[in-house]
Design brief:
mainly alpha, five-stranded mixed β-sheet, 5 strands
Length: 745
């Protein structure tokens, strides 16, 4: 106890010292990577930005995280992050940058927290290097520059970690409760993903606390109960509220938050079982529709287009049934194939794995000589914590059936912590000539440089040969020189060690800047020379080299006569998704982005990659509105609650953002939610709440009867009255669909 009290006094004393001047440039680097040019992202992820627009309008929408101002359906995630975004938009005004700002600040905060966590036990240089590694991990700024949830989630979990470490140092049970309660808050950000750190929390508390086993079990049981209570608090309130007094719980099949948490946002992510069944409709209709739609739109404009059409037909015929937010197990979205080396595969390695070999050598060094029965030093205990965070999360991503590249930010804190702590530990072993341990530093440098060459090799056409050859040559030379000079203690050896660390961080730093250099993607954040495409893989993965990325897409709502395959998104080669992005609905053969938008971001070096607008509308292809359609709907609105209804959020989001008026996404996020029945829709129409319907032939899963009824009981509005004739001007609801009017008496 005396030892713990002395540690607390030391902490208070250290807090009174001046700011670490070496930390200042690290924080400035993090601020630049996370904040620079976020003001150019006008809509961010349009699906979530539309929700913030809606949440600003009433407390009812705010509490339930309603996607639309009418309170028809919620977004597919819990509300805490969006509460924060809404508060930011309330303070600074509703802009793309104001909804991104909380995540950007969270990214910077994570860098500072990691510095504090590592510095105390492993030393100031370990803290500095860990903070720098965190700042330069490419996926960290890529995610933090968007209004996706993950950056805020990681920050919250690091706050919980700080509380847990303090609980162990002070032996105060209150901090244990606070740490686990914070995980409960994180659950209300992204549900079960927050629980990925629980093994680390349990293992560390059991090993690090010097209390009886009886107390350990009692304390952990109580803290876990509190965590669970906080976790389900919002869900219980929502699920216990009458369904007619709240929005439908988006992306659930039973209108339940708990089903959403443990199904769509839970176990299905691990199993990859993304097939869903609506309340009365099966999903295959959606797949059949997508195949027919995509094949119909194909033309023979060129041999490349013909090949593209053939590939799409083949992939569509073998496509597995898709759910909202779903994918498959064949490496869609460049997440590779499940296996022990998945994190070293293309598409994942360049997001997170740049320092993994060095981390492995660091783990060996930090645990060298540790006996299973202890006793353990503070360094070993905290190393165990980071290891218990790293391994389960790495295993999950190695075997998971479905996830996106940006989820890998969950691995950034333990990797950065081991990079910082390991750099100092391996350097100490190297300088002390501790036998085989002195070889860990040059070995870590050599293998890490080799992996980085492997990571960069697919991008030779984008970045050139020089940086690849430079990292490889310098890594080999520095590792060999350090190995030879082990017996020499002079300043040159120190400079060589520092140079090696600079070499290992050079390319991650460049990769971290690519969302600024090439433009980012707010729906599928990733880093790399193709960061704006949202596909996160080397350019060679594009189906059509001329159309690499998402360029050449036909603006929806336009009446250009050319409807070739160049106007359709293609999955990465080798995918069996049939041109379908997460969201699970087809978009007239176009890919749909998570967050409900298709995307027209360009690949670098494409002929049209530079937008003519100073604002980057990376909310997706449909993050602009068809002004002619909007004018028509506004002029002919006779007091209806909803401006119009459409199948899913893709078409609705930009109009909500633009006007702040309710737009009904009948099937929720991707059009597959079983929200409406024909009888319910009749009642809504009779009440005068909606009369216009935009149907683009997608999202039938769970609402095919409703769509059929609309077509049979409506008047088609001539396209000349609402459809833009420009192929590059204003954009409308997704796809070349049809506008209908229904009035029931």
């Amino acid at each position: 106890m005396k030892h713990m009290n002395s540690e607390v006094k030391e902490e208070r004393t250290s807090n009174k010292k001046r700011i670490d001047l070496f930390l200042v440039p690290i924080v400035l680097i993090a601020a630049f990577l996370n904040l620079f040019k976020i003001w150019t992202d006008e809509y961010a992820n349009a699906y979530y930005t539309a929700a913030v627009k809606s949440m600003l309008q009433s407390f009812h929408n705010f509490f339930y995280a309603s996607f639309d101002p009418g309170g028809y359906v919620t977004i597919d995630k819990p509300p805490v992050v969006f509460w924060i975004q809404t508060i930011s938009a309330k303070i600074f005004g509703f802009h793309g940058w104001s909804v991104i700002l909380p995540q950007a600040l969270a990214g910077i905060g994570s860098v500072l927290l990691l510095y504090v966590l590592v510095k105390r036990t492993f030393g100031v240089w370990a803290g500095r290097f860990a903070a720098l590694a965190m700042a330069l991990t490419p996926i960290v700024p890529a995610v933090s520059r968007t209004n996706n949830i993950d950056s805020m989630l990681v920050f919250t979990l690091l706050v919980a970690t700080w509380m847990l470490f303090r609980a162990v140092r002070t032996a105060k049970f209150g901090w244990v409760l606070a740490a686990f309660a914070m995980i409960g808050v994180a659950f209300n950000m992204k549900m079960l993903q927050a629980y990925m750190v629980l093994p680390a929390f349990y293992v560390f508390y059991v090993v690090a606390t010097k209390i009886t086993w009886k107390k350990k079990i009692a304390f952990l049981t109580t803290a876990t109960a509190l965590m669970l209570a906080v976790s389900v608090s919002w869900a219980v309130v929502v699920d216990s509220t009458s369904a007619d007094k709240r929005p439908y719980m988006g992306s659930s099949q039973t209108n339940s938050v708990l089903e959403l948490a443990f199904g769509y946002n839970g176990i299905n992510r691990l199993t990859g079982n993304t097939s869903v069944t609506g309340s009365s409709h099966k999903q295959p209709a959606q797949t059949e529709q997508q195949t027919a739609s995509s094949e119909t739109k194909q033309t023979s404009n060129s041999s490349a287009d013909s090949s593209q059409s053939s590939n799409q037909r083949k992939s569509s015929s073998s496509q597995k049934m898709q759910a909202p937010g779903g994918g498959n197990q064949n490496g869609m979205f460049n997440t590779g194939n499940p296996g022990p080396f998945r994190l070293f595969q293309k598409g994942l390695s360049d997001q997170i794995s740049w320092l993994l070999p060095f981390v492995i050598f660091s783990i060996v060094g930090l645990f060298a000589g540790v006996k299973f029965k202890g006793p353990y030093t503070t360094k070993q205990k905290e190393s165990l914590f980071w290891l218990a965070w790293l391994l389960p999360v790495a295993v999950f991503f190695s075997i998971a059936g479905f996830f996106h590249q940006y989820y890998l930010i969950m691995l950034a804190p333990p990797i950065a912590a081991f990079a910082g702590a390991g750099a100092v530990a391996l350097w100490s072993m190297y300088k002390q000539h501790n036998g085989w341990k002195s070889c860990l530093l040059p070995g870590g440098i050599l293998t890490t440089a080799a992996l980085q060459v492997y990571i960069m090799s697919p991008y030779v056409s984008s970045i050139g040969v020089a940086p690849i050859a430079g990292v490889g040559a310098l890594g080999v030379i520095l590792a060999l020189v350090l190995a030879v000079r082990k017996q020499r203690k002079n300043s040159l050896t120190n400079y060589l060690g520092a140079a090696a660390m600079v070499v290992l961080l050079a390319m991650p730093a460049y990769w971290a800047m690519t969302p600024i250099i090439y433009g980012g993607n707010s729906m599928l954040p990733s880093a790399g020379p193709d960061s704006s495409s949202g596909m996160g893989g080397p350019p060679s993965t594009a189906t059509n080299s001329k159309q690499s990325g998402f360029n050449g897409m036909q603006p929806p709502g336009s009446s250009s006569g050319n409807s070739s395959s160049n106007n359709q998104m293609q999955p990465p080669s080798g995918s069996s998704n049939g041109g379908q992005m997460p969201g699970g609905s087809s978009n007239n053969g176009q890919m749909q982005m998570p967050g409900g938008s298709s995307n027209n971001s360009q690949m670098p070096n494409s002929s049209s990659s530079k937008s003519s607008s100073s604002k980057r509308k990376s909310g997706g292809m449909n993050a602009e509105v068809n002004q002619k359609l909007l004018n028509y709907l506004t002029k002919n609105n006779t007091g209806e609650k909803y401006l119009f209804a459409t199948t899913d959020s893709t078409s609705a989001a930009p109009y909500i953002i633009k006007t702040g008026k309710p737009v009904m996404a009948m099937g929720g996020f991707s059009g597959s939610d079983p929200i409406l029945t024909v009888s319910k829709l009749k009642a809504i129409i009779k009440k005068g709440e909606v009369k216009y319907f935009y149907l683009s032939g997608m999202g039938k899963g769970g609402q095919s009867d409703v769509i059929t009824w609309i077509k049979e009981n409506s008047k088609e509005i001539p396209s000349s009255k609402w459809q833009s004739t420009s192929s590059s001007a204003q954009q409308g609801p997704s796809g070349n669909g049809t506008l209908y009017e229904i009035t029931l008496k």
